[in-house]
Amino acid sequence: MWAKHNHKKDCWIIVNKKVYDVTPILDDHPGGDDALLSAAGKDATADFEDVGHSDSAVEIMEKYFVGEVDATTLPSEVKKNPAPPVQSIFWILI
Ligand code: HEM
Predict the structure, then answer these.
(1) Where is the Cytochrome b5 heme-binding domain (predicted)?
(2) Which atom belonging to ligand 1 lies closest to the Cα atom of 38?
(3) Model confidence over 12-70: pLDDT tens digits?
(4) Model pTM above 0.90
(5) Residues paired with 10 in a beta bridge
(6) How far is the CA of 88 from the centre of ligand 1 (A)?
(7) CA 62, 64, 67, 68 torsion: positive or negative?
């Protein structure tokens, strides 16, 4: 599936090669919607782990699991974990 999911109405993030649709929790996320929106469009694994999210945060995120990402299909700029977020990102879910 080809998709672009990096805005407020449709925000997907990648953590540990898994894709999460965090759109429903943007308003409730204790770290703010900005953190999630700026993590969309790149690999958010390092940012997620730097925060030291609790076990309950990890439990919550499983509800928003969409699928696994095939890392070989990510554009090279996404692999390099750029900031600010890439405006145009295409992921293939496997
Ligand atoms: C599905 C993904 C995510 C879920 C379910 C989630 C959930 C949570 C929860 C429950 C907390 C409260 C503290 C805790 O229990 O650990 C939290 C805090 C936080 N999150 Fe997330 N988070 C997600 C992704 C992210 C990402 C990708 C980032 C960074 C780019 C981020 C940045 C933060 C920050 C900065 C805080 C700290 C807020 C504070 O203590 O002031 N989160 N998150």
Answers:
(1) 1-70
(2) 30
(3) 999 999 999 999 999 999 999 999 999 997 789 999 999 999 999 999 999 999 999 87
(4) no
(5) 7
(6) 24
(7) negative
Check pocket membership of 26 for ligand 1, CB cut-off 6 A.
no
Is the distance from the beta carbon of residue 29 to the nearest atom of ligand 1 less than 6 Å?
Answer: yes
Q: From ligand 1's centre to the CA of 86, what distance in Å?
A: 21
What's the gap in Å between 27 CA and the centre of ligand 1? Answer: 12
Closest ligand 1 atom to residue 52 Cα is 16
**DSSP code of 78?**
H
For the chain, domain boundaries: 6-79
Tell me the CATH number for domain 6-79.
Answer: 3.10.120.10
Residue type, 18: K
Query: Residue 94 — pLDDT band, cuts 50, 70, 90?
Result: very low
Confidence of residue 76 (pLDDT cuts 50, 70, 90): low
